[in-house]
Amino acid sequence: MAAHDGRYAPSPSGPLHLGNLRTALLAWLFARSAGARFLVRIEDLDRGRSRREHEARQLADLAAIGLDWDGEVVRQSERAELYDAAIARLDTYPCYCTRAEIREASQAPHGALPRYPGTCRELTAAQRAEREAAGRRPALRLRVAPGPAVAFTARLLGPQRGPVDDLVVRRNDGTAAYNLAVVVDDADQGVGEVVRGADLVDATPSQLHLHDLLGLPRPTYAHVPLVLGPDGSRLAKRHGSVTLADRAAAGETPERVRARLLASVGLPGDLEEALRIFDPGSLPCEPTMLTPEDLR
Ligand code: GLU
Question: Is the CB of 181 within 6 Å of ligand 1?
Fold first, then answer.
């Protein structure tokens, strides 16, 4: 692992939008400006939402804005053995709870991420058998010993700390959970610096905890600001022409899109030039709010 080896890890559930593309550009600039490797990993564990055609489009779009990457693109759907081996080393228990039950038991307000109330932590063999007999398939949860919040420093966001819950490491459809797969992959691929959107900062404490439990070296983290729609919410399709294909239909070339994305973080539109002067310390920490005109 080299300190600045980086990656971009899209989920192929739809086309990349301007916010995804800007995060990819920044991840590439962080790695390449340090002379480090840049990898692309396809996070296609969600079988219901992942599509090969989205993957192909995403890779073509990354290339169209001038990004290159080292080695083969890795797909999480082909790495179950690695995840299984990691899960086998963790202290876990089967959890039969549905999301609705967790929300109810923890009395979390709707939409908030509830802490796991511990319902299945101490089930007896008979209670497990009863749930299995009712046709429930368990997820696997990590048994987290009570302890202090995990503290870390995220580039651009500064000092952070967050609690670690009994997180799911294997979903009840048998696939590895996002947090587990990301940790195993980042370590296996030698990623030294994880550059990703600020919206994922809440997942970082759990991931650091997994790195520690599995004895894998911790990467450093840079959480880059998001691109927001005119209403201030995270950019989405409903906001207008947000993908490269949309922008092309609106008469905008990929080069022009790239120039606009780079300008939004104070960088020149020419990628070589941006790379030459790139300084993570001078990136804005605030999200960028697009206007309706930007998305026409
Ligand atoms: N696959 C995740 C996403 O598309 C990103 C995961 C990560 O960068 O750690 O939101």
Answer: no
